[in-house]
Design brief:
There is one protein chain. By secondary structure, the protein is α/β, with parallel strands linked by helices. It is 28% helix and 20% strand. It contains 7 helices and 10 strands. The strands form 2 sheets. The chain has an 8-stranded parallel β-barrel with strand order 1-2-3-4-5-6-7-8, surrounded by 4 helices. Strands 9-10 form a two-stranded antiparallel sheet. Helix 3 crosses helix 4. The longest helix is centred in the middle third of the chain and has 18 residues. It is globular and about 55 Å long.
Length: 282
């Protein structure tokens, strides 16, 4: 499998959105330098989001640093205007595939991630619509960019519809998943307002369905340091969850090959390590 580690798990990160460590106008604050320095561990890969139709040359400076540092780039290609933009023999896709194949940078392609999430901009209630579009993308990349593995990656929630969106073994190189731990004390079966869930159990569905036939990637992940409903600071809860997650990941899920941490705050979802020492230390 292209880019797959011979043993263990490659760590990756999305760190471009953390302004404490990244400033696009300041070369001394480039995330591929500042993020590993902050966490005290080198990264094997980085995640970049690309809207469908975007010219990726705007990321060329990022790619050049990745080449110098021998890093893998996961491109999350997002059809933000809807799946109708993806067409057979799409010249944008063909050119993108050719460009990535010719490039000296190591790439992976994730198309339409979290397609099963009803809040996704490209969600479609009829899974066959997504499957048709994913197969178009996969066929073009397998034809024009054989060195760029294709990732199919639903969201962790809702788990009961994940398999409905599976496009077929021949179209997928890696099965991925977006995996996030949100504080949800309302789910306490004892009714005492305690979130008793373990983030490290979240991969059970994906792993049981696909790990016997595909390597697994956690394409983005994090434990939120803020309660979504109350806005309370729950950094201690998130710190315990992330420590538990990475303790059990290689034990419970040995066919997981990559794990990307999402290091950015978004509204009431707080994942940035740079401003939370306890979470960073965990």
């Amino acid at each position: 499998q292209v880019h797959e580690p011979k043993g263990g798990i490659y760590l990756g990160a999305y760190a471009e959105g953390d302004t404490n460590i990244y400033n696009p106008w300041d070369p001394s604050r480039f995330y591929m330098d500042t993020f590993p320095a902050m966490v005290g561990k080198d990264m094997a890969a980085y995640l970049l989001y690309v809207p469908y139709g975007m010219d990726i040359s705007s990321y060329e400076s990022h790619f050049q640093v990745a080449i110098q540092k021998d890093k893998i780039i996961q491109i999350a290609l997002e059809p933000r205007d809807g799946l109708q933009d993806v067409k057979y023999n799409d010249q944008y896709l063909i050119n993108l595939a050719k460009d990535l194949e010719r490039h000296k940078c190591k790439f992976m392609l994730r198309f339409g991630g979290e397609m099963n999430d009803t809040t996704s901009l490209w969600y479609h209630a009829d899974p066959s619509v997504f499957i048709e579009k994913f197969r178009i993308v996969a066929n073009i990349f397998h034809t024009y960019a054989p060195s760029v593995p294709v990732i199919w990656a639903p969201n962790y929630y809702p788990p009961d519809t994940i398999d409905d969106y599976y496009p077929g073994d021949e179209y997928i190189d890696y099965v991925g998943m977006s995996s996030y731990q949100m504080h949800a004390p309302i789910t306490d079966p004892l009714g005492k307002g305690v979130d008793r869930s373990r983030w490290s159990n979240q991969l059970d569905t994906i792993y049981s369905l696909y790990s016997h036939k595909k390597p697994i990637i956690i394409v983005e992940s994090g434990a939120s340091c803020m309660d979504y409903d109350t806005w309370a600071d729950i950094t201690s809860y998130a710190s315990w969850q992330i420590k538990d997650f990475y303790t059990y990941l290689p034990i419970k899920y040995p066919n997981v090959k990559f794990s990307f941490i999402f290091n950015t705050d978004r509204e009431r979802h707080k994942f940035a390590m740079s401003s939370r020492p306890e979470y960073l230390n965990a």
